[in-house]
Amino acid sequence: MTVRPLPPVAIAGHAPTSERNDDHPMRRMTRRAAGLDPGGWDEGARAEVADLFDRLAPEWHTRDTPERVAVVDDALTRGLDAVGLEPDGVAVGGLAVEVGAGLATYSPLLARHFDTVLAVEIAEEMLRLAPPAPAPRVLADCSRLPLADGAASASVMINAFLFPDEVARVLRPGGAVVWVNSSGTETPIHLRTDEVAGALPFEVTGVESSAGVGTWCVLRRER
Predict the structure, then answer these.
(1) CB within 8 A of 192, min separation 6: which ones?
(2) Looking at the domain assignment, is residue 132 inside a domain?
């Protein structure tokens, strides 16, 4: 694993939307889903997460700010270029699967870089409120994505759970894992770059950085 840091980028007015709490239920669930803590991902976890985000869906749009969008934009523009997927600004193309897409707020950004974006979400109410374009919306458990083996050019997780084995199944060699925590370490669904890279069952090279208070990494699958 070789991950090099890029210089941080300032985003005026960007502040965390929550306070760090290592005992937050979604922090614990993040580590379980990634295989970093005991418990794993089971039917109880699926039901708990789907119920929570169904309840949060009506007010979820209030969390979307230009500053949060800027964090994702920075990860995609600097990150994809740095790992060699967008030299000279040429789009990656192919399919990006947006894991835990919520209201699909970031799908338009992804559509600038990939031919097709698939917005996958476990909470039905989130998808009901999400716009129909530019990404088709799919209701599914992201630990079992409705994709063929090696179908994706990128697996994108923006404040979303990491399912390492499923990423390995759907991501083609040379594809990218994009991991964004828009409030950095304050994000309830948070992992450090070394934890993301270490959980993946394949070799990666990549970059990491921060934008405002957000943190991100883009990791290229080497085999």
Answers:
(1) none
(2) yes
Q: 43-56 and 25-33 helices cross at what angle (nearest 10)?
A: 140
**Domain presence at residue 134:** yes
* Domain encompassing residue 68: 25-221
Q: Which residues contact 57 (CB under 8 A, 6 or more apart)?
A: 103, 123, 125, 126, 128, 129
b/e string for 21-44 if b means 16 or more Cβ within 10 A? eeebebbebbbbbbbeeeeebeee
Query: Does some domain include residue 5?
Result: no
Query: Can you tell me the mean pLDDT for 126-151?
Result: 95
**Which tens digits make up the pLDDT trace of 9-63?**
999 989 887 766 778 899 999 999 999 999 999 999 999 999 999 999 999 999 8
DSSP 8-state code for residue 22: T
CATH number at residue 214: 3.40.50.150
What's the total number of domains in the chain?
1
> Can you name the residues that pair with 98 across neighbouring β-strands?
119, 156
